[in-house]
Specification:
Layout lengths: L7 E2 L13 H7 L6 H16 L6 E6 L3 E3 L7 E3 L5 H12 L3 E7 L21 E7 L6 E7 L1 H20 L2 E6 L2 H15 L6 E5 L6 E2 L18 E2 L2 E2 L4 H8 L4 E8 L2 H15 L3 E6 L6 E7 L32 E2 L3 E5 L2 E9 L16 H22 L2
Parallel strand pairs: 2-5, 2-9, 5-8, 9-13, 13-14
Antiparallel strand pairs: 1-11, 3-4, 6-7, 10-12, 14-15, 15-18, 16-18, 17-18
Helix pairs in contact: 2-5, 3-8
Bound molecules: ligand PAZ.
Protein name: DNA/pantothenate metabolism flavoprotein C-terminal domain-containing protein
GO molecular function, one term: catalytic activity
Pfam families: DFP
Length: 392
């Protein structure tokens, strides 16, 4: 690497020029990750298998944050906030709704099923007990490990759902780390899923960096601190939603997420994204309220999966293996609000868990907003598929 061209300026004296990358120039100039082909073969085999089951719907769930390395031999990187809860939890609910799930996740972020006993939430060893029994034929102790009865009740449905997904082969987990890994994988997966047509859904919950350091501007070795302050100038990540919607997988049902910290920006920015990229739905969430409320923003025209039926639905209590059991006041799905921006009519639908206490750490008993999100999406996706049958 040519250090004078670096956008990482440890001497704080070299202003560097930034480039506006188009999607095309990005993929021409940034190398694919080394293990891309291996991952794509696994994704291809998974999609081929479910393609032949004509009733099966397939969802790509992206999850976790992307890193932006500052050095090729990476010691330091910038990261996007995300624990992977939204993606991992939603993946479980998609599986329970009969979907085949490609779970594209940041390495070491939360995963479906194992999230229930992550080291911070429910440390694995805390679930276990030792049972000692004296062997009749010898004096030796035969110690056995069992799941403690108080945990077994909670673990059982998780284990059953996990085994069902394993037996059916309906969950494929593929990891990424950097923004470059993520972009390459998203492009390739969407191409692989394109033949599924409207049976494919894209649930883009990963927190994706808007800025990156192109290869030719990245320091090769660890940036040294001897020169004082560090200035960074990063290039903009191309907006890949546009080619995703228009070229890579034009028939898929595409759901993007919008995270904001200023609640005032949430709806205008979600509408702007819909208008710019032309996909089906944006789910808006505010950082601190994201576990308790989200807003669905969509165009109110017929045929995008929006239906007046969705305006009156109240989630059922205690359905199936739902964790809504035992909740005094059911979560509410607010009435839609339709309004106009940029010359188009948009509909906003709020999903709220009004009755939960923020900060409740017990992830196994609480109602999870992802259950409501997924249930709504499954209904919209079904209408979207149905609408295509009516269109000649
Ligand atoms: O992973 P998590 O549950 O901690 O957070 C989920 C989320 C806020 C990253 C997700 O809901 C989201 O909004 N993703 C898109 C973020 C973005 O605007 O890039």
């Amino acid at each position: 690497m040519n250090s004078s061209a670096s956008s990482v300026d440890a001497t704080n004296s070299v202003p560097s020029t930034s480039t506006a990358f188009s999607t095309e120039s990005y993929f021409q100039s940034q190398k694919p990750p080394p293990n891309l082909e291996d991952k794509c073969s696994r994704i291809q085999a998974f999609v081929d298998r479910w393609f032949n089951v004509s009733t099966k719907r397939v969802v790509l769930v992206t999850s976790g944050g992307t890193t932006v390395p500052l050095e090729s031999n990476t010691v330091r990187f910038l990261d996007n906030f995300s624990a992977g809860t939204r993606g991992a939890t939603s993946a479980e609910y998609f599986l329970s709704q009969g979907y085949a799930v490609i779970f594209l996740h940041r390495i070491h972020s939360l995963r479906p099923f194992s999230r229930h006993y992550s080291h911070s939430l429910n440390p694995f060893l805390d679930l276990l007990s030792i049972v000692s029994s004296q062997s009749a034929s010898s004096d030796s102790n035969r110690d056995q490990i069992i799941v403690s009865p108080e945990h077994a009740t909670r673990l059982l449905p998780v284990l059953r759902a996990y085994n069902a997904a394993q037996d059916a082969g309906s969950l494929l987990q593929i990891d990424f780390q950097t923004i470059n890994d993520y972009l390459w994988l998203l492009k390739r997966v969407s191409g692989i899923m394109a033949p599924l047509g409207r049976r494919g859904m894209f649930y883009l919950a990963a927190a994706v960096s808007d800025f990156f350091l192109p290869e030719d501007k990245m320091a090769e070795h660890k940036i040294q601190s001897g020169h004082g302050t560090l200035s960074l100038e990063m290039d903009q990540v191309p907006k890949v939603l546009r080619p995703l919607v228009q070229e890579w997988t034009p028939e898929g049902y595409i759901v993007s997420f919008k995270l904001e910290t200023d609640p005032e920006l949430l709806i205008p920015k979600a509408r702007a994204a819909l208008s710019r990229y032309g996909h089906q739905l944006v789910i808006g969430n505010e950082l601190h309220r994201r576990k308790y409320e989200v807003v669905f923003v969509e165009r109110a025209d017929y045929g995008n999966g929006v239906s007046s039926a969705s305006t009156t639905t109240t989630p059922r209590k205690g359905a199936g293996d739902s964790r809504l059991k035992g909740v005094e006041t059911p979560p509410v799905l607010n009435a839609d609000v339709a309004s106009k921006q940029l010359g188009e009519i948009y509909r906003e639908t709020w999903l709220r868990l009004d009755d939960l206490v923020p900060g409740d750490q017990d992830g196994m008993d609480e109602v999870e907003i992802e259950e409501l999100i997924v249930r709504e999406l499954v209904a919209r996706h079904a209408r979207w598929l149905e609408a295509s049958k009516k269109t000649p």
